Amino acid sequence: MKLKSFALTLLTASIATVAVNQAAQAASLSVVADYLDNPRNMDFDKDGNIYLTLSGKGGDGNDGRCIASPSAQYIPLCAGPNGGVIKIAKDGTKTDIFSNLTSIALVPSGEQAAGPADFKFDDKGNAYLLTGLAGDPSKRDTVLKSPDLGKLYKVDLNSGSLTSLADFAAYETANNADGTDYISNPYAFTIKGDTAYVVDGGGNTVYSVGLDGSGIKNVAGFPLKQIDPSKLETPTLPEGVVDPTGGAPLPPGYTQAPNGLPVSNQAIPTGITVAPDGSLTVSEYTYFPYPEKEARIHSVNPDDLSIKTIYDGFTQLTGVAYDPEGNLYALQHINQSEWKAIQQGGEITGDISGSIIKIAKDGTRETIWDGEGLEAASGLFYNDGALYTSNRARLVAGERGGQLIKIDLKATKKVPEPSAGAGLLAIATLSATAAIGKRKRQQKVGEELLAKVETL
């Protein structure tokens, strides 16, 4: 995926927290497409075909096209030509629209790719493609040699040509709109009239872009969420580690937890949609250590991009959508802090179940889907009585790889919110020996690749 998050540079043994569904759910989840590499956002054309972006699985790093990941410091992000867009017909037939767009991902796992990030149609049937970056934008053209990343394009579906409408990576390099560290990762967009509204999960910003070729019209940074670092739950440091930063100065906007781990306080916007009143609704992922119940939903004025928080109390949101009745649906990527469930590099060490929360017009919340096959999902879209999301959106094709799934709202049963006393079912200490060995191997591979890049 990867949204900007300051993750561990350390190797730790994780504790997995296992939660319980409070009620049985109807069997309404179905797989639309599977064996996908880092599936992301999508749209429907007028005939009901789905256009789904695949961020790909990156490269092997042998050509030196690698940069340091902002979310997994010892595992490089390396480029490869395997990002794409697929068309999924109503009968399930898949057709490649693009198959060789740039992808960057962690090596060797291919996890947390950035590349093709979102695809949308306007009300005239014109198509648009957004590409992500997930790293230092100043190295896009030089080190990655991938100038197609970090942009919004108009797409000619007949010829396959792409016309650039906005370059967010270049804008972040020149302006650093939110005033923190220099990272860009355009992640999702929506269209209202003749304007696209793009959220950048690396730059912590929302952009407005003219679809007539007039370029970026406005940009605004999302507000930081300051939490007392002493109240944050963080991984336990390995024995003997005193300064996990190695003495490096903290980037702008960062604080430190009591054990020394950096905390960014950044918003990380992820999903965006047009609300029934014409405003924009934006979901938030939250920063490392991904504090539970601290993610927000914002309302953005499309005219001046002024931002106000309308809901709080979620965990790692990656998508929002409205139904025709005006109910809002919010997607939780994982129901617990990410570091408890999945390690950088894609090693699953805990429960990666996510959930979908329905927020009625009066603010009442209901969890309508919890786990039961919904795992580390990203992007949420309503169409004809159903919700669609990219399941395991940060993983590559395989036994537990990426999928596009459909949840039929007409068949779902409500899941009661857990009571304050329900708590956690169990806290199980995982065997750390294999996990540590694997992460050491990843670190060694990453260090060798980055050293190779530096000598090129």
Describe the structure.
By secondary structure, the protein is mainly β. The chain has two helices and 29 strands. Strands 3, 4, 5, 6 and 7 form a five-stranded antiparallel sheet that branches. Strands 2-28-27-26 form a four-stranded antiparallel sheet, with no helix packed on it. Strand 8 and strand 9 form a beta hairpin. The radius of gyration is 20 Å and the shape is globular.
Number of helices: 2
Broad structural category: mainly beta
Structural shape:
globular
Roughly how many Å apart are the termini? 28 Å
Q: Over the alpha carbons, how many angstroms does the gyration radius reach? A: 20 Å
Question: What's the rounded overall pLDDT mean?
Answer: 85
Which regions are unreliable across 5 or more consecutive residues at pLDDT < 50? 1-27, 418-438
Helix content: under 10%
Short description:
This protein is mainly beta and 456 residues long.
Question: Which labels suit this protein?
Answer:
456 residues; mainly beta; five-stranded antiparallel sheet; four-stranded antiparallel sheet; 2 helices; 29 strands; disordered N terminus
Strand and helix layout:
Layout: E1 15-18, E2 29-36, E3 39-44, E4 50-54, E5 66-68, E6 76-88, E7 94-106, E8 116-121, E9 127-131, E10 151-156, E11 161-167, H1 168-175, E12 186-192, E13 195-200, E14 205-210, E15 215-221, E16 255-256, E17 262-263, E18 269-274, E19 280-284, E20 295-300, E21 307-314, E22 317-322, E23 328-332, E24 353-359, E25 365-375, E26 378-383, E27 386-391, E28 402-408, E29 426-429, H2 433-455
Antiparallel strand pairs: 1-29, 2-28, 3-4, 4-6, 5-6, 6-7, 8-9, 9-10, 10-11, 12-13, 13-14, 14-15, 16-17, 18-19, 19-20, 20-21, 22-23, 23-24, 24-25, 26-27, 27-28
